[in-house]
Amino acid sequence: MPQNNNITDEEEIMSEEEKNEVTENPENEAVSDSETEALKKELETQKDQFLRMAAEYDNFRKRTEKEKSATYDNAVAATVEAFLPVADNFALAMASDADVSDDFKKGLEMIQKQLEAAFEKLRVTSFGERGEEFDPNLHNAVSRTDDPELPEDHITAVYQKGYMIGDRIIRHAMVQISN
Q: Measured between alpha carbons, how far is 178 from 55 in angstroms, rounded to an integer?
């Protein structure tokens, strides 16, 4: 079927009178102002919702990043905890006065340095040295002794070093403190 694309001038063009009625009618202006106010309120509402959604997304992103980091730290802590007896035994072997060859002692030192480098790479730090001030949050005091060289509540001997990753303690240091 052929379509009739011929539109008369009357249908196509709005009369001048109709145009004047639309632009000069005070009721249309009032409707236009109220519509404008309604649109402004709707825009503000949408903007507020958008900002809230953006803030929620940012909080979600930060929270998941912290959770991912905590999961990593927990896994590293559990793994390092399994290796701590090995590190303790190397420290005891290095501190012993056993009559061993220099090559053997040098080999032990190399292994201990590799173990320390691995801990450093995993961001694991040790604490609990002679002369440090006692902190019950970090140290586990197993005995007290008189030591004229150190002030009260300072570490006089370390039985086991403490280890931590970030702010999380993997193992408290086992120490002796001064009276």
A: 52
Show Cβ contacts of residue 105 under 8 Å, excluding neighbours closer than 6 positions: 94
Q: Say how far apart CA 122 and CA 127 lie, in whole Å.
A: 15
The shares of helix, strand and coil residues in the chain, as percent rounded to the nearest 5, are 60, 20, 25
pTM (predicted TM-score):
0.61
The tokens for 37 are: 């106010």
Nearest to 138 by CA among 116, 153, 151: 153
Helix 16-24 and helix 26-95: axis angle, to 10°?
Answer: 60
> What does the pLDDT profile of the chain (179 residues) look like in tens digits?
455 555 555 444 555 555 555 455 555 555 588 899 999 999 999 999 999 999 999 999 999 999 998 898 889 899 999 999 988 988 888 888 778 888 888 988 899 899 999 999 999 999 999 999 999 999 999 999 998 889 999 999 999 999 999 888 999 999 999 98
**What b/e readout covers 52-85, taking b as 16+ CB neighbours within 10 angstroms?**
eeeeeeeeeeeeeeeeeeeeebeebbeebeeebe
